[in-house]
Amino acid sequence: MSIATISPAKLAEITQEGRKIELIDVRTPVEFREVHLQIARNVPLDQLDPKVLMQDRGGLSSESLYVVCKSGGRSQQACEKFIKAGFTNIVNVEGGTLACIAAGLPVVRGKKAISLERQVRIAAGLLVLLGAIGSHTLHPALIWLSAFVGAGLMFAGITDTCGMGMFLARMPWNRCGTDKESSCTRRDPP
Q1: Closest CA to 61 of 30, 22, 94, 24
Q2: Residue 185: its pLDDT value, please?
Q3: If exposure means fewest CB atoms within 10 Å of the residue's CB, which of 9, 164, 175, 180 is most exposed?
Q4: Active-site residue flag, 162
């Protein structure tokens, strides 16, 4: 089954008409805090339970659920999770939050953070460097650290699933505090 999509322009048109839609943003809480669509609420991909979310929608369960991330990859994965769980009224926002910003949809901006993608590049680069230097100075077997990271990056590219990204998303610096000022999961009024 193919996943339904909507362009940012069409999404803007729907919201400008005053239609109530439900939009979930599946990025990490810190990414969400940095910038998110005004109508979005945060449901991180690693915490997404399609059945629970759909049950919580109550009277909206027959309406389409729109899903967005940064550029479309994680929202595609989220839509696939919903479809595997038996839900078909799921719509992926093409191009993600970046495309929505470019299309002029209203956003909420908060505290800046290092994106998950940059964190993966930093961590992968550091591990490769440590493996290379360590194999030269400490023990030749440490070259396998570099090889392991390289294989992981190749796997991530082929499958569009990044284990290191999923791991880093769970780190404390990618979570938000519980106080009101740093909360990432509250829904901002439109």
Answers
A1: 22
A2: 42
A3: 180
A4: no
